[in-house]
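hey can u run this one w/ biotinyl-5-AMP bound, need the structure tokens asap thx
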Amino acid sequence: MSTPHHPHEELRSYLDPLPLGDWRYHPVVRSTNDLALAWAGEGAPDWSLVLADEQTTGRGRKSRRWEMVLGKGLAMSLILYPTPEEKGIIMRFTALAALGLIKALEKHDLKGAIKWPNDVLLMGKKLGGVLVEMAWVGESIEACVLGMGVNVARGSVPDDAQLRMPATSIEDACGHPVDRWELLAQILCAMMDLRTSITEESFMKAWSQNLAFRDEWVKFNFPAGEVEMVMLLGIDRDGKLILKHEDGRVEAVNSGEIIVENKKS
Ligand code: BT5
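ok here u go:
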């Protein structure tokens, strides 16, 4: 009789060789970020990881939802304790996760791009999203939780009607099966490598080079609500988006959103 397959065994083979603090896998959770924030409060080591096959209330920014299909995507939350130097450039932690995914995609011959500030796109469609949340002690950031959701298998993409922009999965883009846990290990390796240069110019260069719609005119929703066409020029050292208005004025913004319309909805 064959033994029932348990994701733990396969996961172990990918995660045990990595220098993670610790990791926990759950079949179903409300949100991996919630568990990671609670675990950070209990003293989880740096580079501890929470994984789930399904989230009942996975979240994005601004009370939006992150939808996933059981066992078809990745839902991961990584606990990092920023060093004093990293605390000054905390916006870069969102890019750390997004660039980690982009580097992992390169191993599958796919070229991802970061839709500022926190989306990863493949061929202009959303493949994944990053949600960084902080645990504070007084006025100081104690821990950062880097949450990321990725559509991996065919069938991992939620129903179009629920989405703000078109979405895709890795398998839809590359046309062959991709092992979720192998991809996870590739993302983590890339993030570990990237963190060693997070304070350096090379990190900012990688971020800017992988910016979606760079040097293109896009519709931009400013925080006060107005929508304007702007050209995306790059990212400044604080992680702000540098954009040019139609009248030629250049500005760096730290909030607002690039609008990509979901034509089907
Ligand atoms: C994000 O927010 O894209 C961040 C998503 C972070 C999810 C991870 S999963 C692990 C961890 N635990 C959590 O609870 N969250 C993190 P935002 O940029 O606000 O985008 C949210 C929007 O993305 C939604 O309003 C939908 O339009 C769209 N969306 C939801 N699920 C999607 C999916 N699977 N694929 C593509 N788009 C999706």
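The radius of gyration is 18 Å. anyway lmk if its weird
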